[in-house]
Design brief:
55% of the residues lie in helices and 7% in strands. It has 82 residues and is mostly helical. The chain has two domains: 1-37, YefM-like fold; 38-71, no CATH class. A two-stranded antiparallel sheet has the order 1-2. The chain starts with a helix and ends in a 13-residue tail after the last helix.
């Protein structure tokens, strides 16, 4: 979407970003484009970058997910502080 179109359709564009998890690329002169995404998408992106920042932690997460899918997990009660 170009900048002029965005100005006239801002509510629709922002609703699409939030409601449909769409990423909007706003094209501008001299290829100085801007990306618009919902706060939820942004937070998810940052969280994924954090999780993948450490290969060791990311590998551990993938192993845990595989174990859970294979039914190799135990249900435990949480300890409540009194």
């Amino acid at each position: 979407m170009n900048y002029s179109t965005l100005r006239s359709h801002m509510k629709y564009a922002f609703d699409a970003c939030c409601d449909d998890m769409e990423t909007l690329i706003v094209t501008r002169k001299d290829n100085r484009n801007v990306v618009v995404l919902s706060e939820e998408s942004y937070n998810n992106l940052i969280e994924n970058l954090y999780v993948r920042a450490s290969k060791k932690n990311y590998d551990r997460l993938l192993t845990s997910i595989a174990q859970a899918k294979a039914g190799q997990c135990k249900k435990r009660d949480l300890i409540e502080d009194e």
